[in-house]
Design brief:
Helix content: 40-55%
Distance between the termini: 118 Å
Shape: rod-shaped
Number of helices: 5
Strand content: 25-35%
CATH class of the largest domain: Alpha Beta
Structural class: alpha+beta
Strand order of the largest sheet: 3-4-5-6
Order of helices and strands: HEEHHHHEEEE
CATH architecture of the largest domain: Roll
CATH superfamily of the largest domain: VirB8 protein
Length: 207
């Protein structure tokens, strides 16, 4: 009888140890599954899909500080593109200016109004001139705030009979603002001014 009891006690100890091992294994698997789930959710949330021309393009979210240089340079380039890309059409000029002025403060608006009062845009229309710009480089100092920049660009004034090339240098500062559809980078150009705007060929006649 004692042998039978010892056998029962031994079997109980085996079952007890097995049960404890099974419980610990279940807890470990559950913890691993929870950790893996949170990790997968974090990875999924770090991915952004943008729909462009019917195609889903994968993008990745990041801290703003990681993309300051890229976004600020693109902001400056887009502002100069809209401000200096002109065609002999008042609606095109007005549309481009509205897009440009959403990216800058009153310093850009003041330059636009000065050019308009001087008849620059009327000359563009009456002479059937198209104006294009290519930004060559942008120097940016993010060690100070607002961020100082200097932009070097090449302008082309295209007539039916000739093309005039100009070198353009501007400077200004960037400060942070809220992002919007009109200002996707969330920067605003301030204290913007033109330092140089001269013909490459000194004999060329400006409009």
């Amino acid at each position: 009888m004692f042998t039978q009891l010892r056998n029962i006690d031994t079997a109980f100890q085996h079952i007890k140890r097995f049960s404890i091992f099974l419980i610990l294994a279940c807890v470990g698997i559950s913890c691993f599954a929870v950790w893996k789930s949170f990790n997968m959710v974090a990875n999924v949330q770090a991915k952004i899909y943008i729909l462009a021309n019917g195609k889903a393009i994968e993008a990745f979210s990041a801290e703003r500080k990681d993309n300051v240089m890229v976004e600020s340079r693109d902001h400056i380039k887009m502002f100069h593109h809209w401000f200096f890309t002109l065609d002999p059409d008042d609606k095109v000029i007005e549309s481009n200016m509205n897009k440009a002025l959403n990216l800058a403060d009153e310093s850009a608006k003041k330059q636009y109004e000065n050019l308009r009062e001087a008849g620059y845009y009327n000359n563009i229309i009456s002479a059937n001139i198209s104006q294009e710009i290519e930004v060559d480089s942008v120097q940016l100092d993010i060690n100070q705030y607002p961020f100082y920049f200097k932009c070097y660009a090449t302008q082309k004034l295209i007539r039916s009979s000739s093309t005039v090339t100009r070198k353009l240098v501007t400077q200004g500062y960037l400060r942070n603002v809220s992002r919007s559809d009109n200002n996707p980078h969330g920067f605003l150009i301030q204290k913007w001014e033109t330092l140089l705007n001269t013909d490459v060929d000194p004999k060329a006649v400006q409009p």
